[in-house]
Design goal:
The complex is a heterodimer.
Chain A: E1 5-7, E2 10-13, E3 19-24, E4 31-37, E5 43-50, E6 65-69, E7 75-79, E8 88-95, E9 103-104, E10 108-112
Parallel strand pairs in A: 2-10
Antiparallel strand pairs in A: 1-3, 3-7, 4-5, 4-8, 6-7, 8-9, 8-10
Chain B: E1 3-6, E2 11-14, E3 19-26, E4 32-38, E5 45-51, E6 56-59, E7 62-67, E8 72-77, E9 86-93, E10 100-102, E11 106-111
Parallel strand pairs in B: 2-11
Antiparallel strand pairs in B: 1-3, 3-8, 4-5, 4-9, 6-7, 7-8, 9-10, 9-11
The chains are: A mainly beta, B mainly beta.
């Protein structure tokens, strides 16, 4: 596609429920990243996928968070047993190669009530 | 770990003037540094990348400098316009060179 697509754009969920956030990167981009941004804060790195290599999960805040990237394209970020502190905007980005000129999606705003 | 510092206070500039934003970093020597623009409710948009062996890079009304001795980058917008109002994020590659780390951003407002 022309850009990075994320869905849903907004998600309200009850505490304790599981949620799945989807990211469709730009076709041909080998690198895919997930970040989250809390209100008024900077971007916090979560996870990075590069081609067929093992993902860099060093930013995942707890074992309730997981992500996968199928076929080197679409990625899903899953948060299990959501907590109120998980409320944030979750941003996905892709790039041709690691670290150069990320293209971001518009994000998924997650609200845990 | 790396630490990136950007002016936390908003910067208010008169239209037509040059806006200068500062990014300082510690604990690491990145291979390159990037600047992004973020509008409310949107993801960041990539603007410029400067490498450690480059002192300056320009793109239209934008200019970025990179001083690896001072561990500082300056981002300039010349002939600023109200449409330039946004939050500007500085980012640098982390020590693993597999991802970039972002500063918290500086909000810029250009008044007519």
């Amino acid at each position: 596609g022309a850009g990075v697509s994320q869905s849903p754009s907004n998600k309200v969920t009850e505490k304790g429920k599981d949620v799945e956030l989807r990211c469709d990167p730009i076709s041909g981009h080998t690198a895919l990243y997930w970040y989250r941004q809390s209100l008024g804060q900077g971007l916090e790195f979560l996870i990075y996928f590069q081609g067929n290599s093992a993902p860099d999960k060093s930013g995942l805040p707890s074992d309730r968070f997981s992500a996968e990237r199928t076929g080197g394209s679409v990625s899903t970020l899953t948060i299990q047993r959501t907590q109120q502190e998980d409320s944030a905007v979750y941003l996905c980005a892709s790039s041709w190669t690691a670290n150069y000129g990320y293209t971001f999606g518009s994000g998924t705003r997650l609200t845990v009530v | 770990s790396q630490k990136i510092e950007q002016n936390s206070e908003a910067l208010n500039i008169q239209e037509g003037k040059t806006a200068t934003l500062t990014c300082n970093y510690t604990n690491y020597s990145p291979a390159y540094l990037q600047w992004y623009r973020q509008d409310p409710g949107r993801g960041p948009v990539f603007l410029l990348l400067i490498r450690e062996n480059e002192k300056e890079k320009r793109k239209e009304r934008l200019k970025v400098t990179f001083d690896t001795t001072l561990k500082q980058s300056l981002f300039h917008i010349t002939a600023s316009q109200p449409a330039d109002s946004a939050t500007y994020l500085c980012a640098l590659d982390d020590s693993s060179a597999s991802k970039i780390i972002f500063g918290s951003g500086t909000r810029l407002s250009i008044r007519p």
